[in-house]
Specification:
Blueprint lengths: L7 E5 L3 E2 L5 E2 L2 E8 L9 E5 L25 E2 L4 E2 L4 E5 L31 H14 L7 E5 L1 H12 L6 E5 L7 H15 L16 H15 L2 H7 L4 E3 L9 E2 H13 L5 H13 L9 H6 L4 E7 L7 H13 L5 E5 L12 H13 L1
Parallel strand pairs: 5-8, 5-9, 6-7, 9-10, 10-13, 13-14
Antiparallel strand pairs: 1-4, 2-3, 4-8, 11-12
Length: 364
C-alpha cells in the first residue's frame, strides 16, 4: 500500500429510499481504497468505521499529516494485508466527512439540510455502501469488518446481503445497544440541543453549539474508557493546585475531558453527531423480522466476534446472545475475548492481539 492515499467521491443521483419511508437524492459517498483488486475480484474487504470515523482509515493524505484511524491494522503485512486484499473504507451516510448528511446542501432549498435531514438507520448506511460496492464492480465481498457502530454495519451487511458477504468480523458491537448506552446518548442530545447556539439545528450560518457539543462528547468519552484506564491515566492527580479550595482547580481527568471535548468541536458537526447517535439507538436486528433469532439465522458468512473484557458499552453477554443464536442456526461463529483495560476504545488500540486473530480468521 502506498503511504499517500487520496479520498475519492461518488455521487448517486438515483433516490435512496430510507427505512423511515423518506428518500434523499443525490447521495454522495467519500471513500478510500488500499491495495489492488485481483483479476477474479474476490479479494475485496469493506472496513466500516465507527461513530466519528471517516473514510480515511489508513495511510497519509500528505507529508506530516496524521495517518488514517486504523493505520496499524491496514497495510502491507498487517491484519488487513494490502498485499493480499483490496481494502475499501467509505464515510457513512449522515456523517460530515464527505458523505451526504445534515451539513450537506439540500438541492431543493440551496441551504444546509440541518434538522430537515431525514433520520437514518444503520440499514440505510449499508444500502448506500452497497451502491458504492456496485459502483466498484463488485458482486461479493471477501469480508466486511468494523468496530462499534462499524460492527453494527458489518452485522447488518451479513443479515441484509447474506449472499454477498463471505466473512464478517464484528468487533465491540451488538445487534442492539443497551438501555445504559441509550441513556448516555440522551445526555449527549440534551447537552447539544440545549446550547443556545443550536437554534433547532440551523446554526450553519452563525455560531455553532460548541459548548453543548463539547459537553456531550465529554459524556460520551467516559463510556469509551474503563475504570482501570481512568485510574492508570489520571488517578486523583490535580492538573493545577491553584484554586483547589474553590472551583478554579481541576483534576487531570477533568482537564482531559475538557480538552478532548472542545477539540472534538473543531472537527465534527453537531447535527451529524446527533443523527449518528440516533441511528445507534434505534438499530435493532429484529426490525422487519419476527424475532432476533430469525434475523441472525439469515447470516451465511463465516463470522468472527472480537470482544474486550472491560468494554462498558458492548458487554460480552450481548455477543453471547448472538453467538448462541448463530450456533443454533447451524453457523457457529469464532469468538475471541481479549483481556484489556482500555475499555470500548480497545478496538482502536489493541492492535497486536486483534491482528493475530484476524490473520488466522482471514486465512480461512
Amino acid at each position: 500500500m502506498a503511504d499517500f492515499v487520496k479520498t475519492k467521491y461518488v455521487t448517486f443521483k438515483e433516490e435512496l429510499y430510507l427505512e423511515s419511508g423518506r428518500l434523499i437524492s443525490p447521495v454522495t459517498i467519500a471513500y478510500e481504497t488500499y491495495g489492488k483488486l485481483n483479476a477474479s475480484k474476490d479479494n475485496a474487504i469493506l472496513i466500516c468505521h465507527a461513530l466519528t470515523g471517516s473514510a480515511h482509515a489508513a495511510g497519509f493524505h500528505k507529508a506530516g499529516d496524521k495517518p488514517g484511524w486504523w493505520n496499524d491494522m491496514i497495510g502491507s503485512g498487517k491484519a488487513f494485508d494490502t498485499e493480499k486484499y483490496f481494502v475499501i473504507c467509505s464515510n457513512i451516510l449522515g456523517s460530515c466527512y464527505g458523505a451526504t448528511g445534515p451539513s450537506s446542501i439540500d438541492p431543493f432549498t440551496g441551504k444546509h439540510y440541518g434538522r430537515k435531514f431525514p433520520v437514518i438507520t444503520v440499514k440505510d448506511m449499508v444500502k448506500a455502501q452497497k451502491r458504492l460496492i456496485n459502483h466498484l464492480g463488485l458482486d461479493h465481498l471477501y469480508c466486511v469488518a468494523g468496530g462499534s457502530l462499524g460492527g453494527m454495519q458489518a452485522l447488518e451487511w451479513a443479515v441484509t446481503y447474506p449472499d454477498v458477504v463471505r466473512r464478517a468480523i464484528l468487533i465491540s458491537t451488538a445487534g442492539r445497544i443497551t438501555p445504559m448506552a441509550i441513556a448516555f446518548n440522551a445526555i449527549v442530545r440534551l447537552a447539544v440541543t440545549k446550547d443556545p447556539n443550536y437554534k433547532g439545528g440551523d446554526y450553519y450560518d452563525g455560531t455553532p453549539p460548541k459548548d453543548g457539543l463539547a459537553i456531550g462528547r465529554m459524556a460520551g468519552h467516559i463510556t469509551y474508557l474503563s475504570d482501570a484506564a481512568f485510574n492508570r491515566k489520571f488517578g486523583r492527580r490535580y492538573a493545577t493546585f491553584e484554586g483547589i479550595y474553590d472551583f478554579n482547580g481541576f483534576f487531570e481527568v477533568e482537564n482531559y475531558l475538557l480538552y478532548n471535548g472542545y477539540k472534538f468541536t473543531e472537527r465534527f458537526d453537531a447535527n451529524s453527531y446527533l443523527y449518528l447517535l440516533k441511528a445507534m439507538d434505534i438499530f435493532d436486528l429484529t426490525y422487519e423480522y419476527s424475532s432476533f433469532e430469525e434475523a441472525v439465522s439469515r447470516i451465511k458468512a463465516e463470522t468472527l466476534f472480537i470482544t474486550f473484557s472491560s468494554d462498558l458499552l458492548f458487554p460480552a453477554y450481548q455477543t453471547e446472545e448472538l453467538a448462541s443464536l448463530m450456533k443454533k442456526a447451524g453457523n457457529p461463529p469464532k469468538w475471541a475475548q481479549i483481556e484489556s483495560d482500555y475499555g470500548h476504545d480497545a478496538f482502536l488500540l489493541e492492535f497486536d492481539e486483534q491482528t493475530k486473530v484476524i490473520n488466522e480468521f482471514l486465512k480461512g
